[in-house]
Design a protein that fits this description.
The complex is a heterodimer of chains A (112) and B (114). Chain A is mainly beta and 112 residues long. Chain A is 0% helix and 53% strand. Chain A has strands spanning 4-7, 10-14, 19-25, 33-38, 45-50, 56-59, 62-67, 72-77, 86-92, 101-102, 106-111. In chain A, strand 9 (86-92) and strand 10 (101-102) form a beta hairpin. Chain B has a single domain, classed as Immunoglobulin-like, CATH 2.60.40. In chain B, 0% of the residues lie in helices and 56% in strands. Chain B is built from no helices and eleven strands. Chain B has strands spanning 4-6, 10-13, 19-25, 31-38, 42-51, 54-57, 64-70, 73-78, 87-94, 104-105, 109-113. The N and C termini of chain B lie far apart (37 Å). Classes of the chains: A mainly beta (112), B mainly beta (114). The interface between A and B is medium-sized, with 23 and 26 residues.
Chain lengths: 112, 114
């Protein structure tokens, strides 16, 4: 029940296209859903996060869509650029617990 | 800017050696974490600490120990390194729960055990 399942494991998108990465969870107590971005040779860094009181959060070209009833959330990258090529991790936690439960990661490649 | 530094970017050790990985954060964060990252497995929590001298096991603590003698420093110890501990090790820090769950990561240490 603590798992976060992330798909796909890898993704290739043409420059300018939309990249979509999906995550599903089981624990209904989760109330914080961040996405982290990791470039080669670097640690992950927070990209965008959402709490379940909203169904969507947008920051620039990055959008989280959240479906509470389906227990799913997804990251959409609009107008994908080669500089977006990285590994993306979804995660989940409860407000009372500082531990994050991590998805397995998606390696995204944007082809020029 | 929050800064989390790790003592080595790359480390090569022999089987059976005792290995120390050091992590220092400069933001006065209470929580510190050690993860290992392997392809297809994501980030797996080894140990975390929510205060000086306090530690709790994560999902994969076997073969590892930790030390937190000062708030800013969290060390991961491999008592007797084995080849299956070859991995990328990531340290992170965060504020206490209830404030922000954002974790700030160091650049990682790629450990190879021969």
């Amino acid at each position: 029940q603590q798992q976060v399942k992330q798909s796909p494991q890898s993704l290739i998108v043409q420059k300018g296209g939309i990249s979509i990465i999906n995550c599903a969870y089981e624990n209904t107590a989760f109330d914080y859903f961040p996405w982290y971005q990791q470039f080669p040779g670097k640690g992950p860094a927070l990209l965008i996060a959402i709490r379940p009181d909203v169904s969507e959060k947008k920051e620039g070209r990055f959008t989280i869509s959240f479906n509470k009833s389906a227990k799913q959330f997804s990251l959409h990258i609009m107008d994908s650029q080669p500089g977006d090529s990285a590994t993306y991790f979804c995660a989940a936690s409860t407000n009372s617990n500082y531990q994050l439960i991590w998805g397995a990661g998606t390696k995204l490649i944007i082809k020029p | 800017d929050v800064k989390v530094t790790q003592s080595s970017r790359y480390l090569v050790k022999r089987t059976g050696e005792k290995v120390f990985l050091e992590c220092v954060q400069d933001m006065d964060h209470e929580n510190m974490f050690w993860y290992r990252q392997d392809p297809g497995l994501g980030l797996r929590l080894i140990y975390f600490s929510y205060d000086v001298k306090m530690k709790e096991k994560g999902d994969i603590p076997e073969g590892y120990s930790v030390s937190r003698e000062k708030k800013e420093r969290f060390s991961l110890i491999l008592e007797s390194a084995s080849t299956n501990q070859t991995s990328m090790y990531l340290c992170a820090s965060s504020l206490p729960s209830g404030s922000s769950n954002e974790q700030f990561f160091g650049p990682g240490t790629r450990l190879t055990v021969l």
